[in-house]
Amino acid sequence: MKAISLIVLVLLSALVLVSGLASVTEDVELKQCRDLCRDQKQFDEKQQHVCIQRCEDYAREKKEWGGRGESAETDPERRVRECKHQCEQHKRYGEQEREVCRSQCEKEFREGGGRGKKYYYDVEEEGEEQEVFGEGGEREENPYVFRDEHFLKKAESQHGRVDVLQRFTERSELLKGIENFRIGFLEADPQTFISPAHFDADGVLFVAQGRGTFTMIRENRGRTTTSSRSEIKRHSFNIETGDVIRVHAGTPVYVVNKHESQKLVIIKFIRPVNTPGAFEAFHGPGGDNPESFFRAFSPELLEAAFKVDRESLQRIFQQKEGTIIKASQEQIRALTHGEEGGGIWPFGGESSGPFNLFHRRPTHKNNYGQLFEADPNEFEQLDDLDLMVSFANITRGGMAGPFYNSKATKIAYVVDGEGYFEMACPHVSSTRKQGRRGQSTGSSRGSRQGTTYGQVKSRLKRGTVFVVPAGHPVATVASTNNNLQVVCFEVNARDNFKFQLAGKNNVMSKMESQALELGFGVPAREVEQIFRNQNEEFFFPGPEMQRQRRRGHSAV
Amino acid sequence: MKAISLIVLVLLSALVLVSGLASVTEDVELKQCRDLCRDQKQFDEKQQHVCIQRCEDYAREKKEWGGRGESAETDPERRVRECKHQCEQHKRYGEQEREVCRSQCEKEFREGGGRGKKYYYDVEEEGEEQEVFGEGGEREENPYVFRDEHFLKKAESQHGRVDVLQRFTERSELLKGIENFRIGFLEADPQTFISPAHFDADGVLFVAQGRGTFTMIRENRGRTTTSSRSEIKRHSFNIETGDVIRVHAGTPVYVVNKHESQKLVIIKFIRPVNTPGAFEAFHGPGGDNPESFFRAFSPELLEAAFKVDRESLQRIFQQKEGTIIKASQEQIRALTHGEEGGGIWPFGGESSGPFNLFHRRPTHKNNYGQLFEADPNEFEQLDDLDLMVSFANITRGGMAGPFYNSKATKIAYVVDGEGYFEMACPHVSSTRKQGRRGQSTGSSRGSRQGTTYGQVKSRLKRGTVFVVPAGHPVATVASTNNNLQVVCFEVNARDNFKFQLAGKNNVMSKMESQALELGFGVPAREVEQIFRNQNEEFFFPGPEMQRQRRRGHSAV
Amino acid sequence: MKAISLIVLVLLSALVLVSGLASVTEDVELKQCRDLCRDQKQFDEKQQHVCIQRCEDYAREKKEWGGRGESAETDPERRVRECKHQCEQHKRYGEQEREVCRSQCEKEFREGGGRGKKYYYDVEEEGEEQEVFGEGGEREENPYVFRDEHFLKKAESQHGRVDVLQRFTERSELLKGIENFRIGFLEADPQTFISPAHFDADGVLFVAQGRGTFTMIRENRGRTTTSSRSEIKRHSFNIETGDVIRVHAGTPVYVVNKHESQKLVIIKFIRPVNTPGAFEAFHGPGGDNPESFFRAFSPELLEAAFKVDRESLQRIFQQKEGTIIKASQEQIRALTHGEEGGGIWPFGGESSGPFNLFHRRPTHKNNYGQLFEADPNEFEQLDDLDLMVSFANITRGGMAGPFYNSKATKIAYVVDGEGYFEMACPHVSSTRKQGRRGQSTGSSRGSRQGTTYGQVKSRLKRGTVFVVPAGHPVATVASTNNNLQVVCFEVNARDNFKFQLAGKNNVMSKMESQALELGFGVPAREVEQIFRNQNEEFFFPGPEMQRQRRRGHSAV
């Protein structure tokens, strides 16, 4: 029974993946879905029925939501196969990188990627959801979760978009500690050019999807040279999924998405340098939108600066194409082969360029997930930002934690998959059904005695941002139909430590039995049985997977 | 005459100390006091009369205040003697450590310690106080002094209490520079266990009284290891009066007061890491109060994380005892002998453990006081907090300063004794009787010409917190009946320097006579006479002691 | 025609300089001015007429503004000659230092210096100004420029003054990033003494004019000594124009202007250490104004601290002369020859003393200007403030930029000359005549698409402060009658880089032609022609100089 149940789930997951992205009309899609159900020889009648039901539910839901479909130009299945084949060929990859690589293939070619997609489809059994999310899902006072509606459009053209998350402190004073950080999202169509600009902000970019070339105009940082004496030079890097790129404030950058069919998706961590939490893009090339900053100067000043007449000047500041511009094959080719400084990194010998998170050995890895981390102690580029970049790939049905960060605050962006997280928080009131205590005031004032912890719980789907403050215990659960992939920017990261609250190496298992006995007020043996039962570390089978296993066992 | 006067004072001090804490009814206490007066053979009739008068005053005052008496279980005098004997045996101690040790004996066994005690008893002659404190003591606009009513209860049980001082900026915007710091106070009964918790704050703890064992669950900090790769381990330390302990944010800690009769008193310097000035405790073990943070998670999530059923789980999160729990002799013994890592520090070879402030050579020491300092340059643990911890023991009747800190702001907690401090402050208006100028606006705006300085003056007693900003000249005076003992947390301490304004090495004595002449507008000789007359450094005989000496001289 | 035009301008500049400061009645001054015009043999009738007209305009304007004239005691021309002669003798000087030195001679002896002077005289042709400054000069919403009315008087006496610029955030929340910095201005008459004081702020002083002796009372900073253990000592330095002096918070300082006729002018960069953006002076010597901080203490406390009676004490705190005090020749001599530690720096071997910005090799230098920079990486004194101090001397008619700082915010103080600056700013709305876009909201919220840049443009004259945030393109233009001399404090300076937007080494010239083509939307050739035409670097001939050259050419 358990085995069959798992197969159903896997199959349904696959269905959702495929059908959600096929470039077909809804009817054809629905038909395909039904056929797939019937083709499953291992299904009995009831299972086939449930399967077909799901197909219909999905189709209906998609229709209601207005289906922001895209036309895929080629057969996605063939592309996935090719892509996965390339994963195997990658010499630098170990098995875990290959898995991430293959998962990326699925995502890129089957789904088309991007935060624009709004559907969320729970494959859990009916009634389940209610129980999981309490009375009506997440609570309104939860200030830790951000969705599409909390993003501001910074630029949008027919070829892509740039969004920026609202300031954290617009949401809640509880986030004052991270008020100077922002999160951005960039999505560019295949074969496009993202126009040169600089920002009054430091940035760390994570390539969530795609392949391209990233160019910076930078000084050659020497030892102790005065700021305007040294020369500047163009630095170009090939980028791919998993790359992390540090961009210093003020550096002019431009990007090419050189892929023929795949979107380029970049998640940005931003630290403004002028006004806390506020930054702007400064476009040299431009017209009305984006405007060129050169147009803010008087014509006579520009004439003098450039030693040219104003008519010539006016001609070049009339760009009509916006920030993300369709490029020709020839232009792409010229921009992605490098011209200066001996070719494009990593072949040009540049040491301060991007590094790939997936090429690192995972800090935790088992059947239920993998955690990749880039530490500010190891990566000089992250050091002055006091930032760790990490990537958690939680296997479908698995969970990560509960654990807490000793001093870092985690800002997490869901790159792919669905699931939910739970966090214990002394600042929010709790309305859990199981709740046995009164409301906490949310303030640390007055004569309040002791501390109670509210439950912050929220669904996660692609594009959700959630914040986990230091010290707050948290657990993240992947849905049973998809891996949950999350990129995390952990600020205040130097000397941070992840204290685990369950599994091998958990905090309680290190205490003397007398401390447990006194602390918990029950015989030590009882406490120890609980904190020493789980043999996995960091990643565990999630609640649903556990339940299915139990049912499987009970059915046997 | 001078000698006799001193003896009276010393005797009266002793009386107050003893009688204030004896476990007797008020009548018995008063009788004891009177008898002690009569037993002083060296007293003449008038002196005996004054002495007896004091006894009666004290008894009356105690009655009015409702006398929060405690029952001492054994003879305090015997305990003091034993304790002092141990001071002499301590091999690592020099004479100054012995003195502090003996003074601690007095405090611990005679007084019982603790911020709860509210009495304040001036042994100065009548009428004196009025003159010293102006019209009715300290002024209301003084934002630099905090008393019992400015503390918030964080936890209170029958066996102890945890208080936290209100946020500094709740009091005044003038304290904005230290808004991210908090001060805490912990007092635990003998033979108790303070339950495990971690905090979203860095902490530096000063053991003001008592002996115990302090345990942290910590990672083994390596060179450049990624945050979740390294192992965690239990670290236990024996602690005693004068110990300074750095606790990193997120570290689970628990404490045992192993003493049979003595309370454990800890003063905490706290730097929150999430929200400026706000922090919370996170209790793993717990029930309703403190609640266990585990109870904020869904039962099904915990079942999966721990691989146990929810009934077992619910059983262990029902602690009813609160945060500070009475422990049995056996439990205490087990928790204070160490089990992991080769015994308890300092025998276990742990280098990053607590250090004792009193084992250091005092930076200043004479008959009028001693100053112990732990510099962030020397103590790696204090370095990232940019914090100096210091302890001033001002001899009864003595004074420290005037001096100012060049860049550090001092947050001082009175551990024992009474006295007062005076500070020159350009931000508060002055209403001193001697004042010859108008009100300053307290603002730096407008066309105000020049600067005037208000006098901040306030009584100090056990539990008073006072703040001295950088650059502000300050002097602290001990009452004539008790040493004034103050622990200071000096923030922004790196490269701080204490500039002395009187005594040897004072700032003015380093200036050319022409500079003094021009600056003061009187002949240099006059200025030099004043700034070069005092031969002591940092600690001086205080005003009352000086007056008595003068009277002594004039009587001779 | 071009040559003549230039001569007129130079002559008129000289006229303005001389007449503006001569110690004569307005009629005599006007007569002198007219005579000078007539003496110019190379002028034709029309030129003489224009010249005389200017004299009359100037005299009228001066009368209306109430002419804050001063009496010069000696012949300024002779003094200028002597001063310039000394410039030639200075052995350490290269040619560029000599030029600055000679320019300082002009300024110091002809003008008398100081922010007090309010006149501004444009020698540009009629109608010109309107075009340059748009409809009525700078816009009200410009929060980046500060003039005399934004300074607060801190101290003023008959011998000098101390002003402090208002807090930056009083003007605009856009300046929140620099809210903890302040700018101060000190001007002291010849042969004066600035009385000892310390501040609860770090300071960096730039000597804009004059010669004197600067004294600090400082500890001898050792390796890791505890703050109150080390000794203090007097350190005296000779200072001259161009010197940069770091003063640590709390350090008592006093200054002598030893020059016989020249004012001492110091521009101060201030970083408060207690309350963000707020600081105070603490005067030891003093009476009512400035008050001595000693007077805030109780007489009995001071008696005890100094071991003297209160009558002696009261005598020395009665200073009536204020902060800036006239000194006798003998006092000056004694204070400027050093007594302690083997003479006055640089002869006393002090390594952490002032350094002179003009003794450094300029980072940029051509016919149109020079830029001197002191980098926090090179100068340990600036390192903990993360501050660069720089000095731009823009030749009359020349311009600097456009360029932008990658991460530093520049706070600039106009030391001498006139001109204007233009800056592209995404935060202010633009009302330029040429404007082709709507108002930007000034906020980064809502569904605003893309970014537009407002023009910030403002006249500059002696005493103007202007702020240029990181990333903001800016150009500064000197008037055609005077060099524009600006001292800049650049905060957040570590690893800052100046990206140039025109001239050799400009950012666009480093991009591939395909990037330019795509970015600008026109053929690469057109863009390259514009960005590669200017051969100079950083400093260029300004708009007016260019126009005159063109006219000169067209006339030929």
UniProtKB/TrEMBL annotation, chains A, B, C:
Q: Where is this region: Disordered?
A: 428-456
* Database matches in SUPFAM superfamilies: RmlC-like cupins
Q: Does the keyword Signal apply?
A: yes
Q: Which CDD domains match?
A: cupin_7S_vicilin-like_C (cd02245), cupin_7S_vicilin-like_N (cd02244)
Amino acid composition bias (Low complexity), ranges on this chain: 437-452
Per UniProt, the keywords (alphabetical) are:
Signal
Cupin type-1 domain span? 150-314, 355-528
Identify the stretch annotated as signal peptide in this record: 1-20
Q: Which Pfam families match?
A: Cupin_1 (PF00190)
The protein here is known as Cupin type-1 domain-containing protein
